[in-house]
Amino acid sequence: MITGAAVPEAGQILPEILDLLQAAPGDRESGWRLLALATGTPSGPRQRMVVLRHFEPGSLTLRLHSDARSGKVHEIAADSCVSLLGWDAARQWQVRLEGEARLHRDGALADRAWTEMPDGERRSYAAPDPPGSTVPAPPPPPTVTPRARANFCVITIRLRQMEWLHLDPERHRRACFRFLGHGVEARWLIP
User: Fold this and answer.
1) What is the C-alpha separation between 186 and 11, in angstroms, rounded?
2) Beta strand 34-41 with 61-67: parallel, antiparallel or unpaired?
């Protein structure tokens, strides 16, 4: 149930956004398949592009994959509040997502994601050193070994809030959706 300063149009926008997020992982052309993930550090925010692997609209949960030794995993372990930003050029839509992240290195979710992953993607987790380590030259592609699975981590993000911005030549529009335990609070914002 959508409440707040929403007009009927907001009730139509949110389901469309959720449908697009759900379709994005399987659509290489989707503007929301690659998202900018922001985390906090003691020296300030950090951003990087991530691939949206799955979105469950019922629970408002996104799933990403990461090397467990990466900076983003350490940053999320210290502060689970994250923000993601996506841009759909075809629609001229920006989406900003905020939520709580959880790390899954072990367990059924991580095991299933690893098992379903193609070998080419598994190589990303087989490097002997953590991401960002200094090397004298670009290394050759690593060989997938059992150690690679130990370097793999699933990140789930439960959405708390979403902002949508439509850059329309006639009229820019912006809305905020807060996800509450009993429904959605929607507000129109000045773009």
Assistant:
1) 9
2) unpaired
